[in-house]
Amino acid sequence: MSQAIGNTALAYARVWHVVDARQRVLGRMATNIATTLMGKHKPIYDPAADCGDYVVVLNAKDVMVTGKKAEQKLYRHHTGHPGGLKAINFSNLQAKDPTESIRKAVSGMLPKNRLREVRMERLLIFEGAEHPYESNIIKQHGITNVTNATNTQ
């Protein structure tokens, strides 16, 4: 006997979210993006199931970091050769490739398992405000100032 109640195909449907990174703090924004990519915001969330959504990040070149992280935060990688440890700080990485700092932050916040690369494929980052996915976007986060409609009586 099945334990599923109702039509779960709608719950597994992937929704497209857009996030404006302009003047947003990198770490706080990355945690919200990672949660959306994993699908933790859905009632059907299962750590072993891939039920997350698509996330489109705009204005990656305008992302902020707090304190002295722009000069002090280092991104390291090794070439595989002896003495091949390379390091680049945040400000130089932003000048070279603005999308890479967001990609590394979100990747570090996802679980280290087989689903990590699959989830990262659903993260689409753009330097500016233009992107080719306008027709897919359903939910916007940080694009416009959305005011809550409250009844004032």
TrEMBL record:
<protein>
    <submittedName>
        <fullName>50S ribosomal protein L13</fullName>
    </submittedName>
</protein>
<keyword id="KW-0689">Ribosomal protein</keyword>
<comment type="similarity">
    <text>Belongs to the universal ribosomal protein uL13 family.</text>
</comment>
<dbReference type="InterPro" id="IPR023563">
    <property type="entry name" value="Ribosomal_uL13_CS"/>
</dbReference>
<dbReference type="InterPro" id="IPR005822">
    <property type="entry name" value="Ribosomal_uL13"/>
</dbReference>
<dbReference type="Pfam" id="PF00572">
    <property type="entry name" value="Ribosomal_L13"/>
</dbReference>
<dbReference type="InterPro" id="IPR036899">
    <property type="entry name" value="Ribosomal_uL13_sf"/>
</dbReference>
<keyword id="KW-0687">Ribonucleoprotein</keyword>
<dbReference type="InterPro" id="IPR005823">
    <property type="entry name" value="Ribosomal_uL13_bac-type"/>
</dbReference>
<dbReference type="GO" id="GO:0005840">
    <property type="term" value="C:ribosome"/>
</dbReference>
